[in-house]
Every structure is written in C-alpha cells, then in structure tokens.
UniProtKB/TrEMBL annotation:
Reaction(s) the record says it catalyses: O-phospho-L-seryl-[protein] + H2O = L-seryl-[protein] + phosphate; O-phospho-L-threonyl-[protein] + H2O = L-threonyl-[protein] + phosphate
Enzyme Commission number: 3.1.3.16
Name of this chain's protein: Protein phosphatase
Limits of the PPM-type phosphatase domain: 67-316
Similarity remark: Belongs to the PP2C family.
UniProt superkingdom: Eukaryota
GO molecular function annotation: metal ion binding; protein serine/threonine phosphatase activity
Key words of the record: Hydrolase, Magnesium, Manganese, Metal-binding, Protein phosphatase
Start-end of Low complexity biased regions: 36-55
The protein's required cofactors: Mg(2+); Mn(2+)
Family matches, as Gene3D superfamilies: PPM-type phosphatase domain (3.60.40.10)
Species per Swiss-Prot/TrEMBL record: Ichthyophthirius multifiliis
Length: 321
C-alpha cells in the first residue's frame, strides 16, 4: 500500500484511503501537558575556522560564504528525541528537513527518516561540494534515493556559489526560505519568499522511502542573484506557519549590530525568531499564518500551530568585500 501522509505534528485523525491509495487525515488540535522546551542552537562561530560574526567587513575572504546560526525548538511532546526536524549547515550549504508526523500513527518514528536523509545528504555533499553547490536539486535527488527506509519528509536546501554571486535553492513541500536585502538607508526589504508546494491544505509534497512519497524530481529549483550582507532565512513549516514576513523582517532589523552597517548578529537573530515562533505557536488567540490558510481552505482553526521549529539564519559574505 502506497501511503501519502498529511503533514502534522499535532494530532491527525485517519479517515481512510482513496482509490489511488492516498491517506486522508484531518487536523485535530490537542491539549498538551507540559510547558517545558529545550533550545538547540549552533552557529558558524562555533567553528574555529569561521570568520567572526562581528567582523565580516574587516576580513578578507577567499570564497563567498554563509555566516550562519541554527536554532531548534522541538515540540513539547518530542523533547526526548529532539523533535522530528533535522538540519545541516556549513559555510556554503544550509539544509532543513521536516519528518512528516502522520507516520507516527502507523508505528513509524518520523524523526528516523528526516535524520537519515540529512545524514545521507551531508555525506553525499562532501564527496563533491563544487558539483552540488551548483545544483542542490541533484543533491536532493541523490539523498532521497539513498534514504530507503519507511517515512517521509519535506526538505529545503540553499547553496551559495563560492565564486559567483549566486544563491541556488531547491525545496519540496512546505519547508522553505526567504531572502532579504538592505536598501541604501539600511532598511531591510524582502527580495524573495518561497511558495509552499502543497497538494491541498496541510498536505505538502514529500520525499519518502520504500516507494512512498513523491518523486524527488518534483522538487522546485531557483537561482537568485545576491549581494553582500543579504540575509537568508531557512526553516521548517513550524516557522512559517507561525510567523509571517512582516514579523521576520522586524526581527532582522532589530538584530543589526551597532556601529556595523548592515551586519546582523545571526546567533541572536536565529534564537529570537525561533523563540517568537515558539511563543506564537502556543497561543490560542493568535491569528497565525496557519490559521489564516486553514480558514481560506474552509477549515475552522484559530491560534498558533504547535510544531517542531527549525530556524537557520545566514548572512551572505561575498569574497574580498
């Protein structure tokens, strides 16, 4: 039986199979018993070979690179295993995978697929970085083909060309990214916001093992011309279901370092965005992006959407600038 799973890290109720073998679920909000969270954060400054986050403009760089920070806020009921998102970041690649939660109803841990997918992605990427930086969709396809266990995941990848001022991106499903740029006055502006790749409300495209999910070739692919100090935000749907562009943009503006024109503290920024998304996800009165999309699909939902939240922030540092 080929099973396609609706997205969800809260409770989904299985309704049955269509003639094509697709599983149908509806969203059912459940009350949680614990208010405790754990925070997981790391950044390029943790790597001794990385440039200082506060001295980007003062350093001579041989290649274009990301100055990045990743913050993870697992769902309260999934703290022990660290949630069901997985990620990998280094100076020219950022990847975020989100294990599809509906698999738990079939006795499969959604975290196993997303974690193995990222493990395989990292190993394949390191065999030929130059090749995969130029074509991250090929890396997505190769990683998906190697990850042949039960489960499925959404996935987003962004790669920064080491020599050209080009950002290459690919994604499948509702994990995604947005790109921001400073104007001449130092105000941050949105350059690009991804569009969720969905079959229907809360039913994203997904790659999976054992002949489940969608073909990885259906992933979308983009190329962006970038400028020095552009800010890239990459995340799982736990971010974008709870914060909109205006809220993210405000956080970026607040993270600009004093006396450092257009330089942001990426560590503070990723943590602050993740914390705000987490806070909003718990609200019962907040009109979240997820709630707005639900109502647009004629479903009743209000409040935030509790979920695993992964936020990767990268400021682009072009070489010799």
């Amino acid at each position: 039986m080929k099973l396609s799973i609706f997205k969800g890290h809260s409770k989904f109720v299985f309704l049955g199979l269509s003639t094509g073998g697709l599983g149908y679920y509806y969203y059912q909000q459940t009350q949680q018993k614990s208010n405790k969270y754990t925070k997981q954060d790391y950044s390029s400054s943790d790597n001794k070979s990385s440039q200082s986050l506060d001295s980007t403009q003062d350093s001579i760089k041989n290649v274009n690179q990301f100055l990045y920070s990743v913050s993870v806020r697992p769902h309260r009921l999934k703290l022990q295993k660290g949630g069901e998102d997985a990620n990998y970041a280094e100076q020219n690649l950022i990847a975020v995978a989100d294990g599809v939660g509906g698999w738990a109803d079939n006795g499969v841990d959604p975290a196993e697929y997303s974690n193995l997918l990222i493990k395989n992605l990292r190993e394949i990427y390191n065999t030929n970085k130059t090749k995969y930086i130029q074509n991250p969709k090929e890396l997505l396809i190769d990683s998906a083909q190697k990850t042949n266990i039960l489960g499925s995941s959404t996935l987003v990848m962004c790669t920064l060309d080491q020599n050209k001022d080009i950002l290459n991106t690919t994604y499948i499903g509702d994990s995604g990214y947005c790109l921001y740029r400073f104007d001449e006055k130092g105000n941050i502006k949105l350059e690009h916001m991804f569009t969720e790749q969905q079959k229907s409300f809360n039913f994203p495209y997904q790659i999976g093992g054992k002949d489940h999910g969608d073909k990885p070739q259906t992933a979308l692919k983009f190329e962006h011309k970038i400028k020095n100090n552009d800010v890239l935000i990459v995340g799982s749907d736990g971010l974008f279901d709870n914060l909109d562009n205006t809220q993210i943009q405000k956080q970026i503006q607040q993270a600009v370092l004093k006396n450092k024109k257009n330089i942001v503290n990426v560590q503070k920024l990723s943590s602050d965005i993740a914390d705000e998304a987490q806070e909003k996800s718990l609200s019962k009165s907040y009109d979240s992006p997820f709630a707005q999309k639900a109502r647009a699909s004629k479903r009743f939902f209000y409040g935030g959407k509790e979920d695993d939240i992964t936020v990767a922030v990268a400021q682009i540092a072009l070489k010799d600038i």
